[in-house]
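Blinded run. Sample ID left blank on purpose so nobody reads anything into the name before looking at the predicted structure. Input follows.
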Amino acid sequence: MGRTLLFCALLWFSGFCWGQDPYPQLTEIVTDNANIFTPEELQGLRTKLIQFEDETTNQVVVLTINDLGYETIEEYANGVFNRNKLGQAGKDNGILILFSKNDREVRIEVGYGLESYITDAVASRIIRNTMIPKFKEEAYFAGIDDATGQIIEFLNNPEALAEFNREIEAEGEMPWWGYVLFTLFLSIFIAAGVFVFYKGYSGLVEMFRGIMVGKLGLVPGPSLLLQGYLFSTRAIRVWWKCFGGSW
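Blinded prediction complete.
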């Protein structure tokens, strides 16, 4: 009887634990579970984000935690976002800034309604250029406050967002000397491929000539031909891929 009761109790407890949602239920627009903000910083950030939501209906939420447990920051951010249904119903216009202190990780999770504005590239650059430099100095509030300021500006000012996107594109562009080096190496590869192929072709002619005169022996023609074919094929593949095609 005692064992049965103990077994039932364990089943109930395991079911209770299994049913618990591991993600916090947020009751404030800024939740500082990692205790990285002063009371003044916390109140100031809340006031700014509440005012922005009142003016635009867009919701920017901040959550700080001590650690992620056994989850990745992507999983945790997505779980928090979905559990709390951030943003307005039917608009999905919420944004979550998740900061994990002990894991030294941060993520900006964006609802579908705002993904065309705060794209992955925009969010990544905000984290990389605005937040992480401040976090390295342990200026956590400054990094998060500046990031929320940028997000608000981009959602309110299309021109500022367009300029930011142009800067992202410029970062990804190859410098002029890169194009020169690329063209030089491509020319060398193509020339080498043509040369080796020509040598292989000459060897093939010699091989057939040897067959015709009955002197077929060890000739380098087939080997050179194969090398030329492989080299020129690789050169063509490199050239084609670099210009957007596929093999």
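Unblinding after everyone has recorded impressions. Residues 176-242 form one domain.
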